[in-house]
Amino acid sequence: MSDRELERLLALELEEARPDSVTARAVNPIRRSMRLLLLGLAMSSVTLDILCLNYILPGLGSILMLLGLRSLRQEKGFKAAFYIQLFRTGLTMAANGLRAAALWPLLAGSMAFMVWLSVISFLLTTAEMLSLRRGLKNLASGAGVKTGGFLWALVIWYIVIYGLTLLPFPASGLTTGIIALGAFSLIIWNLWLLAREITEAGFSVRPAEVKIGTFTLAALLAALSVLLVVLGYVLCPQLPMNWQVREEPGETQVREKLLSMGFPDYVLEDLTDEEVLRFQDAEQVLCYVRSYNGDGTDGNRAHAADPKPLRVTTVAVKLPVRLNTWRIVRHLEYTQPVSFYGSEAFYIRNANSYDWFFSRPGDYSGRVLCDRDGVSYAAPYALLTEENLYARSSYGHSPYYVLFGLYSLPNDARRQRCYVIVEYTAYNTLSYYLQPWMEYAHQDVPLQYPVISGKDWFQGERSFNYSFRRTQIISLLQAKGDNPKFE
Amino acid sequence: MVESEIIKLLKAHNEAGLTALQEHYGPFIDYILRPILPETADREECLGEVNLKIWDSAPSYDAEKGSFKAWLGAIARNCALNHRRKARPAEELSEDLPSQDPTPEEQTITKERLGELHEALRRLTDSDREIIYRKYFYMQSEKQIAAEKGTTVRAIEGRLYRIKKRLREALGGESHE
Questions:
Q1: Are β-strands A310-319 and A375-379 bridged in parallel, bridged antiparallel, or unpaired?
Q2: Using an 8 Å Cβ cutoff, are A86 and A65 in contact?
Q3: 0.95 surpassed by complex ipTM
Q4: Is residue A208 very low, low, confident or very high in pLDDT (cuts 50, 70, 90)?
Q5: Chains A, B: CB contacts under 8 A, how many?
Q6: Does residue A352 register a pLDDT over 70?
Q7: For labeling, which of A276, B16, B76, B135 is most exposed (least CB within 10 Å)?
Q8: In Å, how far are A314, A343, A358, B50 from A323, measured between CA atoms?
Q9: What values do phi and psi take at A332, rounded to 5?
Q10: What domains can you pick out in chain B, each with its CATH number?
């Protein structure tokens, strides 16, 4: 049958035919756009904190909103909303990509960065919702439909949600969540009804022509989102570390004195001259060495590595500065290669809330080192800072003032190591224990999303994250009379 | 005013129904007329004919045969086609040419084929049937269909080609002229 004959038959068949209700409803200039817009709005606003849906749904929702607004962009109000949504989609995709980068925990931990991100996001969202309100109102008035107050409710809902995140106390409890979700569901339902009315009456709208089809563009944007996440993993698998060739030791006198007092040479050679000089009045040096698996299996004999790759050396140096002041060096070194070095972290705690013998850690310093092709490299920690750690214990949730270290080790180097020097003072002059409790977190699973650091992991962000292994490093310095020693 | 009230008023030949119809379905009727009658003047003229037809036919409207909107669309579309035919009368045929009227045999074949086509259209997916109706019932251009479906003209052309191919296969064969 020829094409012309088919068209003649189609013309005859459809001459008196009345389209069925499904077809009649589908023939509409804005039906598809309104559906995409509302679905996108719902998906990008409601997040579910399981299986990364809190990132996937807003990402997809953002793309759907963009596709919906793309066809409506010639209408008043929708043009601004489209361009803002274009920017927001790019921002969402970039943020999702950044979440796969090891850099993310540092950005997320930066108050300035998060405040700027929140402010920009708030301004963009509010501007877009106002534009959207204007666009929908114009469509509705053009179609003779009354809008009610739900368009303002949508704008106010977003402002309130952002306002809650800026409160100085946590407002993300279950009750708040249920109220917010209930209000949003009500708004979306009424918007859905409004959109249906507008769709049924909005035949004066002329959708904008497109150069790329909806499905193709959605697939491209989704692929770009995945690509950005992959790039995040590939380009930034580790925390940014400023590696420099380690300087040659210039100071020799104090170093020789410390070596003669029993300071281990492999620890001493990693210390800077400035740090060594602070030991020049050392009265006593005590050393304690112990090796660990470093992968959290130390308590399990069946999994014991032989030899254990993580050597931890604790050196305590007694100083005459004040009575019972000790400067303690913790030196962690991988003497055997391990499968993967990702984000490493430790924290050191001194006095418990129920322990009144010691001051909190005093001044501190340290760095990270490794050897490559016979050359030693050193870098400052990505983060070395004092913070409260809220840990669950038999005493309930109690804050511990701790020293956090955060760093990455290169996978293609040898003798990956780090050290930290902390000063402690014991208040009890006669007999005391100095127990600078240390916990070390080693990342041995490369993929995690969003990327969290060992520091975040220690601070409780452990749900659905099995990338880290914990090692408890215990060394107890007991001082009774004139004979302090490690136990 | 809701649809059922408008229908009730129109069936009762109440002029308020026609006013409400204009208010609520004016843009829809214009949307149906626009692809067939691109000139505004033609559409304005045709609109009067559409209103008259609706006014006359309203008492016979049966909701069981289809939605009110589909009924309105069909009336608007037929009026627009008639208006276009009147505006562009066919050229007079030469008396020397053989008659263009189909023979009884051709009429029988056409009737059979229309039955097959009806069945083939029914078997199409909703989305494919929408494209066919947009193109051959509402006379929308590929450009308009593409914009409203959020896709490209080439994609719509390709899709129409594939749908027609399926229809031709259902009618017993492939051939291009």
A1: unpaired
A2: no
A3: no
A4: confident
A5: 134
A6: no
A7: B16
A8: 21, 38, 12, 104
A9: -110, 125
A10: 3-87 (1.10.1740.10), 104-170 (1.10.10.10)
pLDDT at A357 over 60: no
| Least confidently predicted of A40-54, A124-138, B52-66 | A40-54
From the CA of B69, how many Å to the nearest CA of chain A? Answer: 7
Between B134 and A475, whose confidence is greater? B134
- Residue in chain A lying closest to B143 (CA): A209
DSSP-assigned beta bridge partners for residue A364:
A422
Distance from C-alpha of A338 to C-alpha of A295, rounded to nearest angstrom? 9
pLDDT higher than 60, residue A302: no
SS3 A403: strand
In DSSP notation, B85-105 reads: HHHSPPPPPPTTSPP-SPPHH
Whole-number pLDDT of residue A304: 54
What distance in Å separates the CA atoms of residue A135 and residue A144, rounded to the nearest whole number?
Answer: 14
pLDDT greater than 80 at residue B129: yes
3-state SS, residue A318: strand
Measure CB to CB from residue A1 to each of B74, B149, B175 and give the nearest one: B175
Contact call for residues A438 and A422 (beta carbons, < 8 A): no
Contact, A311 vs A294, CB < 8 A?
Answer: no
Nearest CB partner across the interface for B168, out of A1, A19, A29? A1
The phi-psi region of residue A91 (left if phi > 0; otherwise alpha if psi is between -120 and 50; otherwise beta) is alpha
Which two tokens mark A399?
């804050």
For residue A100, pLDDT beyond 50: yes
Q: What is the mean pLDDT of chain A?
A: 82
Q: Any idea which residue has 């909005």 for tokens? A: A202
Q: What is the percentage of chain A residues whose pLDDT exceeds 90?
A: 22
Single-letter amino acid code for the residue at A74: Q
Per the CB < 8 A criterion, the answer to whether A347 and A437 are in contact is no
β-strands A437-443, A343-349: how paired? antiparallel
